[in-house]
Design a protein that fits this description.
The chain has 328 residues and is mostly helical. Helix content is 77%, strand content 3%. A 3-stranded mixed sheet has the order 2-1-3. The longest helix has 36 residues, at 193-228. The relative contact order is 0.14. One of its GO terms (cellular component) is plasma membrane.
C-alpha cells in the first residue's frame, strides 16, 4: 500500500493529436516545412545583420537576439515532435520533460521581454532622438540583459521546481506534443494549487506588465510621427508599421495567455486544438518575425541586396578571369 502511495511515473508518452493518429506522418510534412522556414529565415536575417557594418546598431542587435531566441525555442520543440510523428518515438523521461519545459517557457518569456525592449528602443529613438545615444548605451544593454535573464530564469525555475515536486501516479499520457507546464501538472496526484497560482503569476508578470508598456510605447511613437509628418505616405507607413508590429505581438501574447488560462481555469478544449494552438504560439512568431523585421525593413533589405550583388560580382570575376588568361 505504501509503495503504491509513493509510486510516481518516471517516463511519459506524448499524445498531441489523438484524432489524427492515422495521419501522423502526413502531419510531419507541414511542421517540417515550418521548421525549415524558421531556420532559413532567421539564419539569413542573422547573416545579413552581422555582415553589413551599417546594421551594427542597438535596434538590429535586438533583432539578432530575437532571431536566436526564435531558432532556439522552435528547436527545443519541433525536432523531438517530428521524431514522434515519423518514428513513434513519443516517450520522454521526467528529467527530460522538465528540461524541455524550462527551456521552452524560459525562451518564450525572453522573447516577451525582448519585444518590450524593442518597443522601448523605438520609443526613445523616435520620441527622444537627440538623447538616444545618451540613453541607449552598452551599460543600459547589460542592465536590461541581466534583468531579462533574472526575471525569466527565476520565474520559470520556480515553475519547473514546483512541477518537479509533484507525484504522477495515475496516467502518464501527456495530452500535448511537448512538455507544456499545465499539460504535465494536470497528471499530478497531489494538490496543484501552487502550480496553478504560479501559472497565473506568469501571465500577470509577463502579459500584465509587458503588453501595457508595449502598447504605450507604440501609441507615443504614433503620436510623435503624426505631429512631425504631413498627412501623406509617411503617416500611412507609420500606421502600417506600428499596426503590423502590434498585431504580431498581440497574437503572440493572446495565444500564450489562452493556453495558460485554459488549463488553469479548466476550460474544456479538444486536445488537437490545444496542441495546435500551443505549437502556433512558438511557430507563428518565429516564422513571421524575419518578414516583419527583415523583409519589411528598408535598411536590412538594402543590406541583403548589397551582399547578393557582391557575391554575384565575385562569382563573375572568378569565371571571367581564367578565360582572360587563356586568351593571352
Amino acid at each position: 500500500m505504501l509503495e503504491a502511495w509513493n509510486f510516481s511515473h518516471s517516463t511519459f508518452v506524448f499524445r498531441g493529436f489523438p484524432a489524427l493518429q492515422e495521419h501522423r506522418r502526413l502531419l510531419a510534412l507541414p511542421f517540417t516545412a515550418s521548421y525549415l522556414s524558421v531556420l532559413l529565415g532567421n539564419s539569413l536575417l542573422l547573416y545579413v545583420i552581422c555582415s553589413v557594418e551599417s546594421l551594427h546598431s542597438p535596434m538590429y542587435l535586438l533583432i539578432c537576439m530575437l532571431c536566436v531566441i526564435d531558432i532556439l525555442v522552435v528547436t527545443a520543440i519541433i525536432p523531438n515532435m517530428l521524431l514522434g510523428l515519423l518514428f513513434d518515438w513519443d516517450e520522454i523521461s521526467l528529467a527530460g520533460c522538465l528540461t524541455q519545459m524550462f527551456f521552452t517557457h524560459f525562451l518564450s518569456s525572453l522573447e516577451s521581454t525582448l519585444l518590450l525592449v524593442m518597443a522601448l528602443d523605438r520609443y526613445v529613438a523616435i520620441c527622444h532622438p537627440l538623447r538616444y545615444t545618451e540613453i541607449v548605451d552598452s551599460s543600459l544593454f547589460m542592465k536590461l540583459l541581466l534583468f531579462t535573464l533574472l526575471r525569466s530564469g527565476s520565474i520559470m525555475g520556480t515553475l519547473v521546481g514546483l512541477a518537479d515536486s509533484l507525484r504522477f501516479c495515475s496516467s502518464n499520457l501527456i495530452q500535448h506534443c511537448y512538455c507544456d507546464h499545465m499539460a504535465l501538472v494536470s497528471l499530478a496526484c497531489d494538490s496543484t494549487e501552487k502550480d496553478t497560482a504560479a501559472g497565473l503569476a506568469v501571465i500577470i508578470c509577463f502579459v500584465g506588465v509587458d503588453i501595457p508598456l508595449i502598447f504605450f510605447s507604440y501609441m507615443k511613437i504614433l503620436s510623435a510621427v503624426l505631429r512631425a509628418t504631413a498627412p501623406d505616405e509617411d503617416r500611412w507607413k507609420a500606421f502600417h508599421t506600428c499596426g503590423t508590429h502590434l498585431i504580431i505581438m498581440m497574437c503572440f501574447y493572446l495565444v500564450g495567455s489562452v493556453t495558460f488560462l485554459s488549463h488553469n481555469l479548466n476550460i474544456p478544449i479538444p486536445t488537437d486544438v490545444n496542441t495546435f494552438r500551443g505549437l502556433m504560439y512558438t511557430l507563428f512568431p518565429a516564422t513571421v518575425n524575419p518578414i516583419i523585421y527583415g523583409v519589411r525593413t528598408k535598411e536590412i533589405r538594402n543590406g541583403f541586396f548589397r551582399i547578393f550583388k557582391l557575391r554575384v560580382q565575385t562569382v563573375m570575376t572568378v569565371k571571367v578571369a581564367p578565360a582572360g588568361k587563356r586568351q593571352m
